[in-house]
Design brief:
Layout lengths: L25 H12 L1 H16 L3 H25 L6 H8 L2 H36 L6 H7 L1 H12 L2 H32 L17 H12 L15 H28 L4 H8 L6 H10 L5 H30 L17 H21 L4 H34 L7 H28 L4 H29 L13 H6 L3
Helix pairs in contact: 1-8, 1-10, 1-13, 2-9, 2-10, 2-11, 2-13, 3-9, 3-10, 3-15, 3-16, 4-5, 4-15, 5-6, 5-13, 5-14, 5-15, 5-17, 7-13, 7-14, 8-10, 8-13, 9-16, 13-14, 14-15, 15-16, 15-17
């Protein structure tokens, strides 16, 4: 049987599958990581809902989730320093445990990233409806659905280009969206401070602790994005040094940004007023908050929402296409997805991702009673389910990779205690915020139980794709063709 690291008809030749090496520096990586964090999108969609659940301690919730995610982010940083690869967790788990488990996880990541992608047209449609409502134009399901095609076309054009071009455009979009939300929060704090109404209750853990754990799901949805810099390793200069730094910078930077901006937003209006904004039917209560403080400039909420979607969509679609590309070049997905074009972009893989973004949001919105807001919640909750799997298994890979290949360098803190802490936190979040709500105590099949059914079906589909890929390629030994082969891995493989 053919080995994966030997030439075979199922494996894409290096000449057909070369990415644009040395294209990204540290800040390019940080930009792409921050982009999918969706700094403004989190403010628009999560702050008001979280305040309704937790009370005023939204900033504390973001601080807690940032700290809680650091052990997992540390495992990503450690593994990226050891084994930078477009396959990322696919590669690490393949080599640290057993190849089929790594391949299966690769498919789970493809599904997770596509799930994150299909969220973007839905959000754009919601912003577009708000934009139309500002001018008194009636908007609904049809306008949101048609508008959702706009970011697909724009992101397709952006990501077809050299990744450096995409990064520059994404950086511009982030400056617009993040700048507006930060300035709005600062203006609110200044105005409330002058009036003597600034409260520091948001940092008091007794001011709403009962709903604190229930709100963590929304905070996790926001910060569950630091992993997407890993699939860009082979397009990065000195990835062993830069990718780990970018991972930590993105995690801490986004967390601090949300602590500050959410502190401003929860100080904007009393909690009961915010609850009324959330219940008003407006897709984001921040639109009404902005109207209260800056009048007609509230129009900037949907406008910056557009730019935020462009940035987030570009980043996550690039991660999705690179993950599918990593499987394709190994022969574990159809070879066509392992090829790159003249811009050294895996465009075939990118087209599949964008095609899913055309079809799946429409189907999910139809199932969710033709309600884009319900579709947004459904897709977002499924994303948290999927992404916690690679987060947990990356911590597992950190332990076993070092035990297998770097036992002499094994560090009890970074290669054992932090990964174990990350596993415990991820499993707890999954149990408390997903399993209990959507499996043990669901209140609706359409909006809750169906998420569990769809996610379980997707995991089974990943198993089927794994079996088909392994049967096509033969016996798996180690991934080939990565930018920096590990001497310890080569020695263990007898090469």
């Amino acid at each position: 049987m053919a080995k994966v690291n030997e030439p075979s008809a199922t494996v894409v030749s290096p000449g057909e599958s070369k990415l644009n090496t040395n294209a990204l520096g540290l800040w390019g990586l940080v930009i792409m990581g921050i982009a999918y964090m969706g700094l403004a999108l989190t403010a628009y969609f999560n702050f008001g809902i979280m305040e309704g659940i937790t009370g005023p301690i939204v900033p504390l919730a973001f601080a807690a989730v940032t700290v809680a995610m650091l052990p997992t982010a540390a495992s990503y940083a450690v593994m990226n320093s050891r084994r930078p690869s477009t396959g990322a967790t696919l590669t690490w788990l393949w080599e640290a445990t057993t190849p089929p488990l790594g391949v299966w996880l690769g498919w789970v990541l493809v599904i997770a990233y596509i799930d994150g992608c299909i969220l973007q047209p839905v959000m754009f449609g919601l912003f577009f409806n708000s934009f139309l409502n500002y001018f008194g134009v009636h908007a609904g399901y049809l306008t949101a659905t048609l508008a959702g095609l706009i970011p697909i076309l724009i992101v397709g054009y952006m990501t077809k280009k050299d990744i450096r071009v995409s990064t520059k455009l994404v950086g511009l979009f982030i400056a617009i969206e993040a700048g507006f939300v930060a300035l709005l929060a600062l203006y609110i704090l200044i105005k409330q401070g002058i009036a003597g109404n600034v409260s520091f209750q948001p940092f008091n853990p007794t001011a709403g602790w009962t709903g604190f754990l229930n709100a963590l799901l929304f905070a996790v949805l926001a910060i569950a994005a630091f992993d997407i810099v890993a699939p860009m390793a082979e397009e990065t200069r000195t990835p062993r040094r830069l990718v780990p730094r970018a991972t930590i910078y993105v995690t801490i930077g986004a967390g601090l940004y949300w602590v500050f901006t959410s502190f401003g937003i929860v100080n904007a209006v009393p909690a009961h007023t915010m609850a009324g904004y959330v219940a008003s039917g407006e897709f984001t209560p921040i639109y009404l908050v902005a109207g209260h403080y800056v009048s007609w400039l509230r129009l900037l909420v949907p406008l910056t929402g557009f730019t935020a979607v462009f940035a987030a969509f570009s980043a996550i679609s690039i991660a999705a296409s690179r993950q599918l590309y990593a499987l394709g070049r190994e022969g574990l997905a159809p070879k066509v997805f392992g090829r790159t074009d003249q811009n050294k972009t895996p465009w075939n893989a990118q087209m599949l991702v964008l095609g899913c973004c055309v079809v799946l949001p429409i189907l999910i919105s139809l199932y969710q009673q033709r309600n884009p807001l319900l579709a947004f919640g459904w897709i977002g909750e499924a994303y948290v389910f999927f992404i916690l799997i690679p987060y947990t298994l990356t911590c597992v890979a950190n332990i076993f990779y070092h035990l297998r290949y770097h036992r002499r360098d094994f560090n009890w803190l970074t290669n054992l205690l932090l990964p174990l802490l990350g596993i415990a936190i991820n499993v707890y979040i999954f149990y408390k915020n997903f399993f209990q709500t959507f499996v043990l105590h669901p209140t609706s099949f359409v909006t809750q139980t169906s998420i569990t059914v769809a996610c379980a079906a997707a995991l089974v589909l990943a198993v089927i794709f794994t079996v088909l890929g392994i049967r096509r390629t033969g016996r798996l030994t180690r991934p080939h063709g990565f930018v920096e082969d590990e001497p310890a891995v080569l020695e263990a493989a007898g090469e």
